[in-house]
Write a structure and sequence with these properties.
The protein is an alpha/beta fold. The protein contains nine helices and seven strands. The chain is globular and about 45 Å long.
């Protein structure tokens, strides 16, 4: 399936009513998988847990993981229709799929999430911390303490909670992959709290990789640039959506299908000598990080 952005064009000025956004409501659907993507059993027999797996980048990674032979668990807030679609698509690709709704901002919820995955599949090999939220504000004075805490709770605290819950089950050669962002390196004047969480994720990734290297568990991150997901039309104005991605050297936003292979590389044995690193999938922006 080809989208207009694949040809360098920008997106229509659409806007979604609710955050973090529902993919089935988007006028222009993101590309979740390229027809040219062929699995080669890189994750055969493994179980992959993806937070924010109902749509966007999470869905694209779930589909790629299924093609690579994995069973997939996706967690999401409340986007049941999107999650059902992801489950259907995963199963069409030969994988089993577990859907789990809920807010991962509490430690108890994260413990229950991991326990459900292990109970269903009997193991956990790859943890992908992908879920995030953002709330653009023009000035730091507009960021309430409630917004600040909520953004950090979803974007950062949940990663700590999930890693703690997953560690007893992750085997040697297991993999943890965190989704950070180009904003961690470039900053964004309207996403102060979001950008700060993404910077924290880079430091968390590097530190955790050193902490777990003796256990044989690798920890890496992917830093997407502007990617066309439900988060964009649900948080930016129609005019900003229309210009989304124009600032990159490629002059367009990316598609989730263009990000997913980086996660598969880091989840598989192809990256057996890679830990503590960040892969930048951002349309050509050089960040030297």
């Amino acid at each position: 399936m080809s989208n207009s952005s694949d040809n360098g064009k920008l997106h229509p000025p659409e806007q979604l009513p609710d955050r973090p956004g529902k993919q089935h409501q988007m006028q222009e659907q993101p590309t979740s998988q390229k027809p040219s993507y062929k699995g080669s059993e890189k994750l055969k027999g493994k179980v992959v847990l993806i937070t924010g797996g109902d749509s966007g980048i999470g869905r694209a990674v779930a589909l790629a993981a299924a093609l690579e032979g994995a069973d997939v668990a996706i967690s999401y807030l409340e986007e049941n229709k999107d999650a059902e679609t992801t489950q259907k698509l995963v199963e069409e690709r030969g994988g089993r799929c577990l859907r789990i709704a809920g807010d991962i901002g509490t430690e108890e919820a994260c413990r229950e999430l991991v326990a459900d995955v292990v109970k269903t599949f009997g193991r956990l090999d790859v943890l992908i911390n992908n879920a995030a939220e953002q709330h653009p504000q023009d000035n730091i004075t507009d960021i309430s303490s409630e917004q600040l805490e909520q953004t950090f709770r979803t974007n950062v605290f949940a990663m700590f909670y999930l890693v703690k819950a997953a560690l007893p089950y992750l085997p040697a050669k297991g993999s943890i992959i965190n989704t950070t962002s180009v904003t961690a390196y470039q900053g964004n004047p309207k996403l102060l709290d979001y950008s700060s969480t993404k910077g924290a994720i880079v430091a968390f990734t590097r530190s955790l990789s050193l902490s777990l290297v003796d256990k044989g568990i690798r920890v890496n991150a992917v830093a997407p640039g502007p990617i066309w997901t439900p988060l964009i039309p649900s948080t930016f104005s129609p005019k900003e959506v229309e210009e989304f991605g124009k600032q990159t050297p490629m002059k367009r936003s990316g598609e989730p299908a263009e990000v997913a292979p980086a996660f598969i590389f880091l989840a598989s044995d192809d990256s057996s000598y890679v830990t503590g690193q960040v892969i930048h999938v951002n349309g050509g922006t050089i960040v030297n990080g």
